[in-house]
Amino acid sequence: MKIKNGFELRDVCGENVIIAHGVENIDFTKVITLNESAALIWKQVEGKDFTEDDMVKILLDEYEVEEPQAQVDVKKLLESWLKAGLVE
């Protein structure tokens, strides 16, 4: 997997917000914000090919969380990114 070109994480008034560049990526009907852990994952995988396991490892390395919980959290996050069209 890879984050699609045309999306960028920015800090907007203290919120982690995904900004779309390019006409094909712009959808003004929704704003995509990321919590701290989701933003951490985004920053670690941006510009790289990655797997669901890579995302889980990022959480395990940064937070005191059990692997099964990290897997559940990553699955939910990845589903939301896929639904929003952020990854390919």
Q: What percent of residues are in strands?
A: 15-25%
Please state the structural category.
alpha+beta
User: Widest sheet: strand order?
Assistant: 1-2-3
Q: Extract low-pLDDT stretches.
A: none
Q: Please work out how many helical segments DSSP would assign.
A: 3
Number of domains: 1
Overall geometric form: globular
Largest sheet: 3 strands, antiparallel
CA gyration radius, whole angstroms: 13 Å
Q: What does the average pLDDT come to?
A: 90
What does this molecule look like?
Strand 1 and strand 2 form a beta hairpin. 43% of the residues lie in helices and 17% in strands. A three-stranded antiparallel β-sheet has the order 1-2-3. The chain has one domain. The mean pLDDT is 90. The protein is of the alpha+beta class and 88 residues long. The protein contains three helices and three strands.
